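Quick one:
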Amino acid sequence: MIRPFRASDAGAVADLTLAAIRAIGPRAYSPAQVAVWAGRHPGPERFLDRVAKGDRILVAVDAGDVPVAYALTEPDGHLDMLYCHPDHAGRGLGLALLEAAEAEAREGGLAHLFTEASELARPVFERAGYALLHRRDFTIGEGDAAVAIHNYAMENVLG
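Output:
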């Protein structure tokens, strides 16, 4: 089931984000890349702050109503996060969340959604109808600790 985020979900969402990065990230990224990527995701307060500023989070929950995947969309249509707990990956939750986010965007009058998809998420976005715009190469970190990484700018024009 997919439902709106609740404040009580913040801990589970933060935990599943890090679990996904650490367990699934190594399939396409180096240990250093995974470490800096995970370092950009602080605890539960981040999700509470994002909702307070107007971002929307949809969560896929298990039979016990515990979040196992989520999508975070900003009011301008930027889909900033799509994560699935590794124990639930490969079950279509990402695609279902993207479809739900698309329906919400249409209801809100948005003409398109856009994202920066990881190497791992790119196929899910493509299945959901997102077009690849370009690869983005950048660094995370500072000085000697800066690590090169990449993702893909993608867009879905809502019809």
